[in-house]
Description:
single chain; 6-stranded mixed β-sheet
Amino acid sequence: MTVDPRDLITATLDATQRMDLDALALVVHEDCDTVVPMAASGRREDASVYRGREETLLHMRQVFDMMSFISFTDRRVTESADGGTVFVECNGEFVLRSGLKYNNVYVFRFDVRGGRIVFWAEYFNPVTMAAAVGLPIGLPVG
């Protein structure tokens, strides 16, 4: 049975909204690498990289532990001609466990092989995220 890449990614974002790690485990390949390239420091070398399904799911658990609500709205999904890559542009509307609302703009890149995600990149404004969770922003001056 062939899995439609767009359906797979829609199911992935829906599982993320439900904070359903079991559902994510079914769609993430054991060798999936996940990257969050934009760090609050502004330095590329501070990008977050998660190797394999275990690290990817640990990262998602950490995200879920911070949030009480996750919603991806206004989704615009684009699939490559060969079906191997799916991009999603969307708005993220979240509520932190503290009750603080956190909204950001997201772009995801998913590479798909054999009906599973083998690469997951998540781009968002790190300044917005850092301000919401109290992280320092940018490089020190001087």
